[in-house]
Amino acid sequence: MLGQTRIHALRGIDLEIMPGEFLAIWGPSGSGKSTLMNMLGLIDAPDAGSIVFDGEAVAALSDDALSDRRNRKIGFVFQNFNLVPVLNALENVMLPLQLQDVAKREAAARAMEWLDKVGIAHLRGFRPDHLSGGQRQRVAIARALVAHPHLVIADEPTANLDSRTSHEVIDLMEKLNEKTGVTCVFTTHDPRLLERVPRQLRLSDGRISADSYTEGKSR
After folding, report:
1. How many structural domains is the chain composed of?
2. What is the pTM for the complete model shown?
3. Burial class for 5, CB neighbours closer than 10 Å (0-12, 13-18, 19+)
4. Rounded distance between C-alpha atoms, residue 28 and residue 155, angstroms
5. How many CB atoms neighbour CB 132 within 10 A?
6. Angle value at C-alpha 143, between 139 and 147, nearest 5 degrees
7. What is residue 160's three-state secondary structure?
């Protein structure tokens, strides 16, 4: 609600995302992208309709059960990175595993493995304020993937990066999608990135105005 006016962020969305897809959602500011991402991430619930995640209708789940699904099955990559400033890169990547009560030694080993996969294992002891924007985003991607989620949601993952680093980050996400089979959904305002994505979903005024898929498209 905005004052006495009800704002419909999304209207009549009917969307199916298959396992292993690499999908970009785009559209102007206010089109409903962030709201849709929050629903995909089980953060927000719709006023009407239903969400089925990994074969499970989630409407009846308790807050604790939803938190468990998010922690174990969904990885989030934020445009502002959302790294804990007092923790180094390794400790930031370990966090999701520690929330799952994974033993510290195992959590550290798995976090190091993912820092190596995203190419910054040598920066494991650095805190976020000593890392570049691209390096911080790589830490955020490693953190999102360390718990082996089924889905990675990235809301404007390149918004705070220069053009070259933006493409490097998308390159990395593509490679991880191909190697691990994790489903990746991200929002973007950059048309240059859309050219590299097999499926593009355009939102306008809370509705899907275009859903295009190019089979076999080169990334």
Report:
1. 1
2. 0.86
3. exposed
4. 14
5. 12
6. 155
7. coil
